[in-house]
Specification:
Elements (H helix, E strand, L loop, with lengths): L1 E4 L2 E4 L4 E4 L2 E3 L3 H12 L4 E3 H9 L6 H15 L9 E4 L3 E4 L4 E2 L22 H35 L9 E5 L6 E2 L6 E3 L5 E7 L5 E7 L6 E2 L7 E5 L5 E6 L2 E6 L6 E5 L6 E3 L4 E4 L8 E4 L6 E2 L11 E7 L5 E6 L8 E6 L7 E7 L1 E6 L2 E6 L2 E8 L4 E8 L1 H5 L3 E8 L2 E7 L7 E4 L12 E5 L5 E8 L1 E8 L5 E3 L5 E7 L5 E7 L5 E6 L5 E4 L6 E7 L4 E7 L5 E7 L6 E2 L7 E6 L5 E6 L6 E6 L5 E3 L6 E5 L5 E6 L2 E6 L10 E3 L4 E6 L5 E5 L6 E6 L1 H8 L9
Antiparallel strand pairs: 1-2, 1-8, 2-3, 3-4, 5-7, 6-7, 9-56, 10-12, 11-12, 12-13, 13-14, 15-16, 16-17, 17-18, 19-20, 20-21, 21-22, 23-24, 24-25, 25-26, 27-28, 28-29, 29-30, 31-32, 32-56, 33-55, 34-35, 35-36, 36-37, 38-39, 39-40, 40-41, 42-43, 43-44, 44-45, 46-47, 47-48, 48-49, 50-51, 51-52, ...
Helix pairs in contact: 1-2, 1-3
């Protein structure tokens, strides 16, 4: 018996699959899976039923079934995100969706020949005449049957015509009026069905909130109660949106309502909501990935950065379908530097590196990852069983973003969203806030300006990380390090030396190089954790951030000749990024003691602490006269008048135009990463997975 579905026909007797009269070769196990699904079309067939029926007594795992389903979907041209034939029913099995009906011959095999007897000619004429008479009597009935058959054929051919496949559609959306997409963190999220887009949008004042929009509507909705929101992410059913705000991990109903606090997260580093109700998140400055229930509670640690490998922090977790995890390993405290894409299997305790030079990755579909590598967005094929990239990769920036600079992306249900800016040169432009060009510094991250404002130092991560110096007058770049991995540059008070963190193996330690000497001198300390310098006093003291084995960061002071590091405080909270006042009497630094990261100044003579910010703050820098402390608050650059008496002065926002502050000179001149026109857009591509599978087919593995 032959049956048909869509443009396909399946012959049960010969166990052959055809498409429009052409045979499609399939392995026996795959044909067995297809036959059982067809036999129970419309019903959910349990995985174990498929394994028992197709593999019988063979010892196999769900992997063999998954490979067979994948192979079958490729043969049918089916999309697992928008299936027409085979639907995955989570935790249960698979269901055959197409309508099954008897198939026409289509010339697949010849009709059986007529098997008449050889003695028919001896029949009597009387019998032949009787047959003729009966035949004439049946003519009206035969005519009616023929007309009915013809009508049935017409109806069948009409109903069997497959519905047109959904089109790949592109359009742009803009943030709400008088807002921009959050430029300080990944701003976008897409619901699992691909129908709703959420983002963190910020006003010129720096106040941010969550906004949503359906792909089939023009209205943009601001979610009340989502103030200070960043890094949104959807629950699997699309009913909830998680986000970071005010040092906490929170959730809010996508339809609106009150936000609920889930757990503490003073240093947001991305999150992912799993189908089992667990949320993986990064919430501490130098910690790993933790998990918390969707109902809230204390976070449980999954990963801890390995100091012996030079790891500083784990960020941007993403769940895999089988319970494994993707995340990015950072080897520098600077947030702009790329890291290493890593993967960990479910219930494993260690992880493996998949690829370097990746800022963030996400699962696009089974077998595919999306990778952000600088300003490039790439797709790569991925084997979740082996936790390995399988070789196939394609830059999708030109097909998605039209050559624009990708500043953030999200994917869900086959819908891709890429937030873009459109500067004239095709990339975000470094410039001074007063309008002067700073193209010389475009390749640098972690930029710090020398005390005399004539030079800048930063990191170029091209394979390994190295310290480079830029002459701001001549525009020349000079490489300062040549071996190992080198990050976190800091200038001496007289501008004659550069201090930095360096490693060839093990943890990061301190090192120094004079500008007039090519030799790099290590500075020996007793610390076993990663040590990163950030400020140097005139008397040679170095202010450092130490990453402990428990993932917490503490601030310390050490002589430029090495020795014991004096830790200033060691509480259950993080302190980092210390900066000396010009006279060396005060130290400003980040502290999460209040539950969110704020700027605090400490008198080094008596230990007295003075608050500097009360609305969040990072990366403090002093003005040359010591009267002001500059710091980052989200995408804003702030400055607060420093009062040694301890009264908190309301910080003021520093105008950075349409850009994000990258560095500040001691004189208060601001370097910004600026969009040329200041406009924000997000390109939306619906049914993008169809295009991806054509551009980058999965490697085909024949099921066992």
């Amino acid at each position: 018996m032959r049956i048909s579905f869509g443009p396909f026909a399946f012959d049960r007797q010969s166990r052959l699959l055809w498409r429009d009269g052409n045979e499609i070769a399939l392995p026996p196990r795959v044909l067995g899976v297809l036959e059982l699904l067809i036999d129970r079309a419309g019903d959910v067939v349990a995985r174990q039923d498929l394994l028992d029926a197709v593999w019988k007594d063979a010892f196999v795992t769900d992997t063999s079934l998954a490979e067979a389903i994948s192979y079958l979907r490729q043969a049918l041209g089916d999309d697992p995100q928008a299936p027409r034939y085979i639907q995955t029913v989570h935790r249960r099995g698979y269901r055959f969706l197409a309508v099954v009906s008897p198939a026409p011959n289509w010339g697949l095999t010849p009709d059986p020949p007529f098997a008449g007897a050889s003695g028919a000619r001896a029949r009597s004429a009387t019998l032949e005449d009787a047959k003729t008479a009966i035949l004439w009597q049946l003519v009206p009935s035969l005519a009616a049957l023929l007309c009915g058959a013809l009508l049935g054929t017409i109806v069948w051919r009409t109903t069997r015509t497959p519905a047109p496949e959904p089109m790949v559609a592109r359009f742009e959306i803009a943030p709400a009026a008088e807002t921009t997409f959050d430029r300080g963190a990944p701003a976008l999220a897409v619901s699992g069905d691909g129908r709703t887009i959420a983002w963190s949008g910020c006003e010129p004042s720096g106040a941010c909130a969550l906004y949503t929009r359906s792909v089939d509507r023009l209205e943009v909705v601001r979610l009340a109660g989502s103030e200070d929101a960043s890094m949104p992410f959807f629950s699997p059913d699309g009913r909830w949106i998680g986000f970071f705000a005010a040092g906490k991990l929170k959730k809010i109903a996508a339809a609106g309502g009150s936000a609920s606090i889930l757990t503490d997260a003073p240093a947001p580093g991305g999150a992912s909501w799993g189908p089992d109700g667990r949320i993986a998140f990064a919430g501490s400055r130098a910690g790993g990935i933790s998990v918390v229930s969707e109902e809230g509670g204390a976070g449980i640690t999954l990963t801890v950065p390995r100091a012996d490998r030079g790891e500083v922090r784990h960020v941007y977790p993403a769940w895999l379908p089988r319970g494994g995890l993707l995340f990015t390993v950072l080897r520098t405290p600077e947030p702009d530097a790329p890291g290493e894409l890593s993967a960990m299997a479910a219930a494993a305790r260690d992880w493996k590196t998949l690829r370097g030079g990746v800022s963030r990755a996400a699962l696009a579909a089974p077998g595919y990852l999306l990778l952000a590598t600088g300003s490039d967005l790439q797709a790569a094929t991925f084997d979740e069983t082996a936790l390995a990239l399988t070789g196939g990769a394609d830059s999708i920036l030109t097909s998605v973003g039209g050559g624009r600079n990708v500043t953030g992306f999200a994917i869900g249900g086959g819908t891709l969203v890429a937030a873009t800016s459109s500067p004239a040169n095709g990339a975000a432009r470094l410039a001074w806030a007063d309008g002067a060009d700073a193209a010389t510094l475009a390749r640098l991250t972690a930029i710090v300006i020398s005390p005399d404002s004539r030079r800048a130092a930063g990191v170029i991560a091209d394979g390994a990380s190295d310290i480079w110096m830029a002459d701001l007058e001549s525009g020349t770049l000079t490489r300062m390090t040549f071996e190992g991995s080198n990050v976190s540059p800091a200038w001496s008070a007289d501008g004659s030396r550069l201090y930095f963190a360096s490693r060839t193996s093990g943890a990061f330690g301190l090192a120094m190089r004079r500008l007039d000497d090519r030799a790099v001198s290590p500075i020996r300390t007793a610390s076993t954790g990663n040590v990163f310098p950030s400020s140097v006093a005139a008397d040679g003291r170095i202010a450092v951030t130490i990453v402990g084995a428990d993932g917490h960061t503490v601030v310390g002071l050490v002589s430029n000749t090495g020795g014991t590091i004096k830790v200033l405080a060691a509480g259950p909270f993080d302190e980092a990024s210390p900066a000396f006042s010009p006279d060396g009497a005060w130290l400003a630094f980040e502290s999460s003691e209040s539950g969110r990261t704020e700027i605090v100044a400490r008198d080094l003579r008596d230990g007295r602490r003075v608050p500097v910010s009360n609305g969040g703050g990072e990366r403090p820098r002093w003005s040359a006269d010591g009267r002001w402390i500059y710091f980052d608050a989200g995408q804003r650059l702030m400055r607060a008048a420093f009062d040694p008496a301890g009264s908190l002065r309301a910080p003021e926002t520093v105008d950075t135009g349409h850009g994000r502050a990258v560095a500040v000179t001691p004189a208060g001149r601001v370097l910004v990463a600026a969009s040329a026109d200041g406009t924000d857009r997000a390109l939306v591509v619906v049914q993008w997975l169809r295009e991806l599978r054509q551009r980058l087919p999965l490697p085909v593995a024949v099921p066992r």
